[in-house]
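Below is one record:
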Amino acid sequence: MSSPAAAGLSVIVITRDESERLRGCLESVSFASEVVVVDSGSKDDTASIARSMGARVTETSDWPGFGPQKNRALDLAAGPWILSIDADERVTPQLQAAIIAAISRTDFDAWAFDRRSSYCGQFMAHSGWSPDYLVRLFRKGSARFSDDLVHESLRVMGPDSRIGRIDASHGQLLHESFADFESVLDKVNRYSTAGARALHGKGVKGSLGKAIGHGLWAFLRTYIFKRGFLDGRLGLALAISNAEGTYYRYLKLWLMQRRGTPG
């Protein structure tokens, strides 16, 4: 999976039951020197697909959360430069060229680039999804992922760290966030549960009123303030999905606190 132009680049991916999407992801990063896949108990052939494509695969029996799992993958990577992507993401050829150019420079410790996400087959131009600049490329040792169970963030360490930016005109990361509505429902359920547990762990108190209020704000923020209405009918559908996910997160938090259990 190596290319002389990308020597020293390690790609890290965490997976679970991603056999349908992983091949396209790994094909898009075949220019890297190394690909590290950390799989958390896939029941399909995710791990065997990764191995067949030359990735170095580590299988884990537990699930510590997105942030800790990505740090596991990070610790296994050998290259001086790290590119972190998810199984539902693809590096475009234009972004590939920009990444190769970026890691040859010495003036930045990390790089952000634009991610373009799709919802049920439509790439969203507004709704808070675009532009979406994320730091995903960094020197090893200059950044770690947060310990959040869900919605983890990459934290570039050190007050003198320098972060560059690859403009969208020089390539984007394509993100198939929701292929169909079944995946919307599945992700809303899984992420709202994980989010409720994370809030509970932080001592946040839930209530029915909070669930309704936060859900309503999520809709207004997506559809009105982030101009989701410009994304047409699917912009409305996305705003409703965001509202539901937020409502369920706080509702589950409230219910688990009523039961006196962490969910």
Remarks:
- The CA atoms of residues 140 and 223 lie 38 Å apart.
- The helical segments are 22-28, 46-52, 66-76, 93-102, 181-201, 208-225, 232-259.
- Residues 4-177 form a domain with the Spore Coat Polysaccharide Biosynthesis Protein SpsA; Chain A fold (CATH 3.90.550.10).
